[in-house]
Amino acid sequence: METWDAIRARRDVRAFDSRPIAGDDLDRILEAGRRAPSALNRQPWDFVAVTEPERLRALSEASKGAGHVASSAATIAILGLVPEDDRQVRLVNFDLGQAVLSMMLAAADLGIGSGHSSVNDQTLPRRLLGYPEDRFCAHLLPLGYPADRPLVPLKRPDRRAFDDVVHRERW
Amino acid sequence: METWDAIRARRDVRAFDSRPIAGDDLDRILEAGRRAPSALNRQPWDFVAVTEPERLRALSEASKGAGHVASSAATIAILGLVPEDDRQVRLVNFDLGQAVLSMMLAAADLGIGSGHSSVNDQTLPRRLLGYPEDRFCAHLLPLGYPADRPLVPLKRPDRRAFDDVVHRERW
């Protein structure tokens, strides 16, 4: 898919059909995350790709917005390095956002929908995924083919108006 | 450009040639940011597109990594809503990361390079750009055609190995 089409076709998908995601496609999505930029190229992330139905079901309890993890074909847990100070909190989360958007566009390019959900309490995800104390699970990124309709460029996305968001030369 | 090519062609560009960016292209890059997802669709961002050479020169003093703003064809100042609490700090910065990556890929798709730089001290950017107290400038995103060579997919990006970053089912 053309880049501009993928950017306009990506939308929040939280209902998936039962088609699995091919291994090569999942790896391409993960590779898109690996290639994302980060402050000082620190790459403060790890990705846990979950496809086992039982583990997906258990992981869907990790936060109240993560119910659709259970019916996803795969879910990528986005782990970040626990930040050392306030500045690192900002930078690590910014970098995780870059990695996730990169993965979502790589998925959209393949016709695969995604709808991520943030995670607060680490207890359950840490128990299920076994990541060390210096990492935290920031988001879950469920993936799958949309149950409703294929991904096509959206003409009128539900967003603030362009002229409200964009300022010229100064505010 | 195909999405997968744009994802692999995006790289940190900090030296630009003197070609301007067409107005439609700059607007497309901004539109890619406007379309990014955000927590609860809050869209906690504003974008100030700067193209005046004098303002770019002045803005390049905003942080020590922003020198290349001066020679950029355009720089987008990424403003965020000042977060109310620690959770919002994480979410707002994550969302800004999503918006910026979306813009960088839209730029790469057009052959336009980008190399963003984070901003701490708000004094100078606030004076130059005039944004209100409830906004902060998180990053500057300088844009321009690369001075060295066109953007093409990178075979060996400078990143941690795939198997180091990616975990299967659990850590």
Q: Number of helical segments of chain A?
A: 6
* Class by alpha and beta content of chain A: alpha+beta
Cα Rg of chain A = 16 Å
Q: CATH homologous superfamily of chain A, by name? A: NADH Oxidase
Estimate the mean pLDDT confidence of chain A: 97
Q: Largest sheet of chain A, if any?
A: 5 strands, antiparallel
| Overall domain count of chain A | 1
Protein architecture, described:
Two copies of one chain form a homodimer. Chain A is of the alpha+beta class and 171 residues long. Chain A has one domain (3-148): NADH Oxidase (3-Layer(aba) Sandwich), CATH 3.40.109.10. Helix content of chain A is 36%, strand content 18%. The first copy, chain A, has six helices and six strands; from the N terminus they run H-H-E-H-E-H-E-E-H-E-H-E. In chain A, strands 1, 2, 3, 4 and 5 form a five-stranded antiparallel β-sheet that branches. In chain A, helix 1 packs across helix 4 (86-109) and helix 2 packs antiparallel against helix 4 (86-109). The longest helix of chain A has 24 residues, at 86-109. The relative contact order of chain A is 0.23. The model of chain A has no long low-confidence stretch (mean pLDDT 97).
